[in-house]
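REQUEST FORM: STRUCTURE PREDICTION
Request ID: SP-0412
Submitted by: Lab K.M.
Chain count: 1
Length (residues): 409
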Amino acid sequence: MRLPLSALLLAPAILAAAAFAEAPPPRHSTRLLVINDDGFSAFYSGRYKNAADLRAHVLTYRDTPLAIFEWCITSGSRVNYPSKVTELIGTGITDFGRRGDQLATETLQRLAAEGTDTLATVAAACREAGLLCYATMRMNGDYASKPGDDFVARQFNSDFWRAHPEFRIRGLKGEDRTKLSYAFPEVRAFKLAILREAAERDIDGIHLDFLRHPPFFGHETPLVDAFQKKYAADPRTLPTDDPRWFTLRAEFMTGFLRDVRTLLDEAGKKKGRRLGLSARIDWREHLKVGCDVATWLRAGLLDYLAVGQHSLGGYEIDLKPFVAMAAGTGCAMLYAEEAILSGHDRTAAEDRAIAAGQMAPPKRDRLSLADYRARAARWYAAGAHGLHLFNEADPAILRGLGSVEATKP
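STATUS: Completed
RESULT:
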């Protein structure tokens, strides 16, 4: 049977990708299981007080099927480890909106003063537990400043963000949309510097979380100029869903991923081993926000891809297109579960009311083990190689997922 020309042209790219991407192996299971620790909530609650607490928590996964522990290093554009690139979370803040924010900031500042590097501590504990450790970057978590209630922005947004409003996302009329734009080389360089610094620790890879939080582009001058040069048209006068606009923005982000892959290769050469790269994306909006997943996979940039939705958990998605895209590339395709089904993050006003005994803490419903098992069986039947769990930390859940087999809905 003769292959169509399109398949023949694609074959070299697929072969190159397969030789480059390396899906991490499962551990104590036939499926790859990954969890993400946001690197902040357990400091907020007081569960992480010192390096011993970090190590003890990671070691609870020693006898589970967990293969990869993702440790988030960023909140906003600040970090939770001593950095020469950006500031520790909460630097310069003396008044806080919530008690947990103050506790987290004070704990991180104390640990840094004591010489504790939280990322290095977690990486060492992962090594001891037999896990791979990936450092996670939330791709665009900066917050808008609100009159009278700007504590979140002051705590999490970096000095780089404050110093460079010209690098923020712009609306159609040039309005400031708060978040930094990846259209600017200075922003990409800032983000890469954080990742390069993280890669100096004894980690096994980098995870880029595109569900926290889009958008990544607006109508910034570098994008508008590039579009006008390529298409002789002003994108600000076109429908917002013009596919050429999506494609152009995606080219900027793909360039960023190639730069991340390069810095990982450089760091891996010094360590004498290959460092992995992975991402979590929205199944519906990925191209719209600048994530050209098909190109990433063909280029062999990712070792595992987590596909989910930018929302609370319990969502149902069509995995088949992503399974097909990942086929033959060497990249593992994971279903991205969000554990929390309802509720919202506590506001400053709610926290004050709770402290005063005027209200109970807001309830947040979660996926149960039975939910996870039933859903996992369906995702495996659809072709998923494993699961990526977000806002989930229970070792019992992981043990219960280790024996799930694929079944038809």
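NOTES: Residues 1-19 have pLDDT under 50 and may be disordered.
Reviewed by: T.R.
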